[in-house]
Design brief:
This protein is an alpha/beta fold. It has one domain: Glutaredoxin. The protein has six helices and seven strands, in the order αβββααβαβαββα. It has a five-stranded mixed sheet, with helices on both faces. Strands 1-2 form a two-stranded antiparallel sheet. Helix 1 packs antiparallel against helix 5. The protein is globular. Keywords: Cytochrome c-type biogenesis, Disulfide bond, Redox-active center. InterPro entries: Redoxin (IPR013740), Thioredoxin-like_sf (IPR036249), Thioredoxin_CS (IPR017937), Thioredoxin_domain (IPR013766), Thioredoxin_ResA/DsbE_sf (IPR050553). Pfam families: Redoxin. It is found in: Cell envelope.
């Protein structure tokens, strides 16, 4: 887990949550659309081997959303055509948007100055950053992270 200072990370997260990015079909989607629900935001790219390897874990977690109450949201940090081509072959049920300008600054403020991928944020229903993960999730790790956070804070993420 990697983390920046709480004030810097919170400001970056709020900037991120206020953004709009297109989905792979080119339709603009505001992240505010998911306000009020816990989010697992995953920055990835089709050319990133570890990103590709973790997608089945994210998909399995997203399919089990009813149990965990957390919405998975993919942010592809690449050109829309590449993201769309990859998702045509590797379909996922969770929403995927194409992130562009300002991503590096947000990642840096969240403790990822090198812009390493994959990079995931666990955000509670109130829009507060709960955990940051640099690197690919392994089998069962997503659910463990959510459960660990909920237990450590004495509350459910829902």
């Amino acid at each position: 887990m990697t983390q920046a200072g709480p004030e810097q990370a919170d400001a970056a997260l709020q900037k991120l949550l206020a953004r709009e990015w297109p989905d792979v079909a080119g339709q603009s989607q505001p992240l505010a659309r998911w306000r009020g629900q816990p989010l697992l935001i995953n920055f990835w790219a089709s050319w990133c081997g570890p990103c590709r390897e973790e997608m089945p874990q994210l998909e399995a977690f997203a399919q089990d959303k009813a149990r965990h109450g957390v919405q998975v949201l993919g942010l592809a940090w690449e050109n829309p055509a590449s993201a769309a081509a990859f998702l045509h072959e590797t379909q996922v049920s969770y929403p995927v948007l194409v992130a562009s300008g300002g991503v590096r600054e947000i990642l840096t403020a969240l403790g990822n100055p090198a812009g390493g991928l994959p990079f995931s944020l666990l955000v509670d229903a109130g829009g507060r950053l709960q955990a940051v993960k640099l690197g690919a999730f392994r089998a069962g790790e997503v659910a463990r992270l959510v459960a660990q956070h909920a237990e450590a804070n004495g509350r459910n993420l829902k």
